[in-house]
UniProtKB/TrEMBL annotation:
It comes from Bacillus swezeyi. It comes from the Bacteria. This is Oligoribonuclease. Residues 327-395 form the Oligoribonuclease NrnB C-terminal domain. InterPro entries: DHH_sf (IPR038763), NrnB_C (IPR058608), Nucleotide_metab_enz (IPR052968). SUPFAM superfamilies: DHH phosphoesterases (SSF64182). Pfam families: NrnB_C (PF26386).
Length: 400
């Protein structure tokens, strides 16, 4: 008998689906949160120790264990128990020190790994599951979505698979996928699923538009952070907010009901797995999470609570345009006017009529400074025209 403990997201459940295809009734699958896994593992190992029963196989996928369970897994393996932990998060790489640890972040060809892809390959290599085209396609969709490679490659079906996962219960999704992978030569969605997925896409777009109006900005431990409360579509919300506000180092998405924080970034220079690890969490460099502890609650909820949401850049402008030779005007909630204009040396900033000392090499660098330090947005045309008229009046007054 096998016991599989996995994560409760698409990648983790993908492992459970493959296990049920491989082992049928000979596997018990349980899905866990990041914080719930260790309790599950500890109970299993304690029962095995109490009963002196070590013949069952323990599989852990898409999650890692704390140090105490790391030592207990060693004891279980030394007593004859079959253990395999398969993960793809770099915070778990130290578990490769053990014979039962199999942690791989990236393949030799540069593709990022997922738990589902690693588990599938492990089962194939050990003769525990036959390869099939449908299974190959399903596993690749899960991998593409979990690593976010689907967006760059334009594989919309990967995102739609995740959308379907969240639209039904885990049990229903698992049952559908197991049956489909056993019975079909190709993996695809049926006609009804395609229709409801189209509706879901529209719903997600509306949800993201609302969250763009709710995000606040602050500095936390030297990072410029966007904070938003959201209980659904964390990957989509994080990615779209990151693209809408690229001056932010990362996006923190608060799920108060689940008592957790998801961290997302679009920047290569920011590693949110390190940030999450500092708060007792972990994950990938661009997608991680941590529990909503007292310290996290203070930093991400209590202290930013009085802040007003960010305003988006004006998007119908004709005159006040970025990188304009006439300069570009920004505003903020303090009613500051920040005028960004070109000079022979680069780009300068005028704050409420006073030119600042620093010169920036590029427009993007100057705009990033304005947005990070003044929480400013691109002003509308009417404000820009009024600003220029005031500038002209001042020049006339000076020249007499």
């Amino acid at each position: 008998m096998y016991h599989l403990y996995s994560h409760n997201d698409l990648d983790g459940v993908g492992c459970g689906i493959i296990a049920k295809v491989a082992f049928g009734e000979q596997v018990e699958v349980r899905y866990n949160s990041v914080t719930g896994l260790d309790m599950q593992v500890e109970r299993f190992l304690q029962r095995a120790k109490d009963k002196g029963k070590y013949q069952d196989g323990l599989l852990i996928t898409d999650l890692s264990v704390h140090q105490g369970n790391e030592e207990r897994l060693n004891e279980y393996a030394e007593a004859g128990g079959k253990v395999k932990l398969i993960d793809h998060h770099k915070t778990a790489l130290h578990l490769n020190e053990h014979p039962w640890g199999m942690v791989k972040v990236q393949y030799e060809d540069g593709r990022l790994a997922s738990a589902t892809s690693l588990f599938y390959e492990y089962l194939i290599d050990n003769g525990l599951i036959p390869k099939s085209r449908a299974m190959d396609q399903f596993v690749e969709l899960v991998r593409q979505y979990d690593t976010w490679e689907w967006e760059q490659a334009g594989v919309l079906q990967a995102k739609r698979l995740n959308d379907l996962f969240f639209m039904v219960s885990i049990d229903e999704f698992e049952e559908k996928m197991v049956r489909r992978l056993k019975e079909s030569d190709e993996f695809s969605f049926d006609e009804f699923e395609e229709k409801i997925l189209d509706m879901e896409e529209e719903k997600i777009e509306r949800y993201i538009r609302r969250k763009k109006r709710e995000i606040v900005q602050t500095f936390i431990n030297a990072h410029c952070v966007g904070i938003v409360h959201a209980e659904a579509y964390h990957s989509e919300v994080g990615n779209e907010l990151g693209k809408a506000y690229p001056h932010l180092d990362y996006i923190a998405i608060l799920n108060m009901g689940g008592k957790k924080v998801s961290l997302r970034t679009i920047h290569d220079e920011t590693d949110v797995s390190e940030i999450a690890a500092s708060f007792g969490g972990g994950g990938h460099a661009k997608a991680s999470g941590c529990p909503l502890t007292d310290d996290v609650f203070r930093l991400y909820v209590t202290e930013p609570f009085p802040l007003e949401p960010l305003k988006a850049d004006a998007f119908k402008n004709i005159y006040n345009l970025k990188e304009s030779e006439y300069g570009t005007l920004y505003a903020n909630r303090e009613e500051d006017q920040l005028y960004l204009f070109p000079t022979d040396q680069g780009w300068n900033i005028q704050l409420n009529g006073v030119t600042q000392n620093e010169t920036f090499a590029s427009f993007e660098e100057a705009e990033r400074f304005i947005k990070r330090n003044h929480a400013a947005w691109l002003a509308r045309d009417e404000a820009f025209v009024q600003f220029l008229m005031q500038q002209v009046k001042q020049i006339k007054h000076i020249t007499g």
